[in-house]
Amino acid sequence: MPISDSLISQKLDSLLLENIRESNFDDFSIVSNRYASWLYNRKRVSKSLETLNLSIKYHRGDTISLQKKYYKLGVNLYNTGQFQESLQAHQEIFKLSNNTTSSLNADAYIEIGRVYYKKGDLQAAIRYYDIAEAILLELNEPQKLVRCYLNAHNAYKTLDINKIKETTLANLLKADSISNIHSISYIRKYSINRALGDHYARYGIKDTTQGLIHLNKALELATKRHDSTRIAQVYTNLGLLYDTSNNKKALYYNELALKFSKEQKKKATIYENLGLNNALLGNIDISINQLHKALELLTGNSFKTITKEQQHTILNKYYSDSNLWIMLGNLSEGYLLAYEKTKNKEQLKESIKYALITDDLIDIYNKNSQEEVSKLIWRKKVTEVYSRALRACFLYNDTEHGLQFMEKNKALLLYEENISRKEKQKLKLPDVLIQKELQIKKQIKELDQGENIKITELRDALTHLEDSIKSIYPDYVKTLKPYQPLSNDDIQNTLTSNQVLVEYHINIDTGFGIYPNPNKGYIIFISKNDRHFFEIEDVDILRSHIQELSDINAKPFVLQNEVTEYNKLSHTIFDKLFPKEVKTFIKNKELIIIPDDFLTRIPFESLVISESQKNIKYLIQENQISYKYSYTFHQENSVLANMTSKKYNFLAFAPINFDNQNLIELVNSSTEVDNINTHFEGTVYRNNKATKDIFSNALGKYNIIHLATHANANDTITPWIAFSDEKIYLDELSLYQNDASLIVLSACNTGTGKIEEGEGTMSLSRGFFYGGAQTTVSSLWRVDDKATAEIMGDFYKNLHEGQSKAMSLHNSKINYLNNHSGSELLPHYWASFVLLGETGPLPEKNWTLHIVVSIIIVLFIFILMRIYVSRKQKRQ
């Protein structure tokens, strides 16, 4: 008669207790380790983990055996969803390694990569896989290399298409080559062919011929083993292979997959694909039901009936499953497509509802992702969700949620970084902690991306430091509020009667899915009392027009036919960006413009608003204009602005000459800062005193900072600013705190930079905003020296007279237009500089404090005089 599991467990528990009582730790270590595996195989997970931890605690054997226990613990914790604990277990392996590399180390790196992939931190996952690959290549471990490449495939396919083409295919082909040379397991060989088929099935690649070759190989292997689970997986991939070219065929394969599939979560993916197939075939009601079924199978809950609290719990539990946000996004699009068919506005409400849930899920991804590169990847992915959701908002005339989606698509990471930095300021952390954090971040920025092990060590150190701050200062965690865009009402309450907020969104859309919405954009106009919502058609044409205008702005021209063509092009763009319905509404108003994507390349004030070629009139001649990354970010930045007091007022740098940097001499920059210095007293560094070190040390002490130097933020390079000895780059610039009220970048191309979808332009201005700046003035093209000197001189004169920052720049440009003629009136000469951020006047000196101090001094002198007179009278 077989012994029951319960009786075996009792006997082993007794044996282990006896070993502990008798201090027989060698036997205890061996028995407990095996017992933990036995328990785990019988799905007694909690008891298994408890036993394995005891085995580690009382371990008395060799180091390698202990490392293997930590590895087993890490894997088991991962399989139960305890990702942070899994990381800690694997990191113990490295502590025991004494700086040596081993096959087990590589296994641990792969497992850590899997944890970061699950957490949505793709860049960290890939870095760990790369480290594992390097070790396994050195040790010549082909079997484990295959496992490494297959796991890396999961992370790379979530990245952009170019990364997939360049890296995933190379890794999978390496794995395939290994499988042809070495004897590998059925599962590995199957997985390689299925992964290759999956690669060729991806949208943007879609190589049906190659996909079929590998998926048929995988199907043959699975069929020979009668492996129904893996047969279902291949049919699912075959469905993906045909989902854009032959939806009936795709539907057929997904229905086959459903017949073979046994696991509930796998069925969820199949229903998700069936929902897509039926939507594209026009069976929209069936599609919506299948997508709801997919959600229910994945989460165990019906999203039709769950409460907000249940929804929050589900999203936090399943956020690491990328299928969830695809299902939610598809459901939002399904309801939007249903509206187009029925014109029932209730369908639009449902579409917006599921877009908002998708947005909540992406926020959770973002919260759990450590690295900016990974966060930028998720910002890019969610841009498409916002683009399609905005269509529903526009059709429903829902400016509330429309603006929310627009705001969430801009400067979210910038917002989060500023909140974190300001909250740390409130804690008044010890200088040693602040300097240590800065030092680690600088070291990470300076390292080459190929130095994976060193970057990993530094990132781990940074995480440990952050965890220490959270542990010592628990209130810090509570104050890190998630990004929540301002409501329409909140925004209207902050606007004056003369202000209009104009926010743009340019759709970034792959063209794939249930409701593609490419080649469109959206505009929302908000004043104190009104809101207007518009859709932009033919965005591709607008894009080419903007590029053409931007190219023309960057160079002077004098021929009349060139001027005529320029004015026509500029007016065409104006008509597109300012629909006729709002032209009277915005007239003579102060416009706060939040551009998006390629719209950041032009100064709106230079747009021609007159239809006649005889009397050219620019937008600046009717409207004062300023810009923001996002309204929410700059409002929050303004609230946080007054946390630090400035010791000095004005700081200027004019390097003039540039050692060994192959940059031309700037002879007029010294005169430029001297002219400004007549309006604002302060510190000016010239020539070889205008160094990078002096700049970085002085940056946080001044209220106004003016840089008259060379700079470049072309989107093909890392943006930089030149000092007399060397350059400072954007990545490093973002580490320095400045909290300046105004930073003026009097150099070329300082307002441009690479556009990151879903976040914004990676310009030099952004680097200063990371450090707490309130306002920047930067340029969109190579500036004209003479015009710059004139406009900048007037700008600072206006500031000194008490005008607001926005009005000062506006009036300096108007003054330029009023005092020039001919070709000098072209925007090339006067429109390059744009003001980004807070628009008000510079902070006034604390005159109250000066008066109080003066009164105290006068009283003190009066008292001394009285004492002196009194004593003199007594002596007499």
Structure description:
There is one protein chain. With 876 residues, the protein is an alpha/beta fold. It is built from 37 helices and 16 strands. The strands form four sheets. Strands 7-6-8-12-15-16 form a six-stranded mixed beta sheet, sandwiched between helices. A five-stranded mixed beta sheet has the order 3-2-1-4-5. Strands 9-10-11 form a three-stranded antiparallel beta sheet. A hairpin with a 4-residue loop joins strand 10 and strand 11 (727-729). The longest helix has 29 residues, at 847-875. The chain is globular. The termini are far apart. Residues 846-853 have low confidence and may be disordered.
The description of the largest β-sheet is: 6 strands, mixed
* Assembly state (oligomeric): single chain
Mean pLDDT over the residues: 88
- Number of helices in the DSSP assignment: 37
Main sheet: which strands, in order across? 7-6-8-12-15-16
Report the principal-axis shape.
globular
**What is Rg?**
32 Å
Q: How far is it from the N-terminal to the C-terminal residue, by CA?
A: 125 Å
β content, as a range?
5-15%
Poorly predicted runs are 846-853
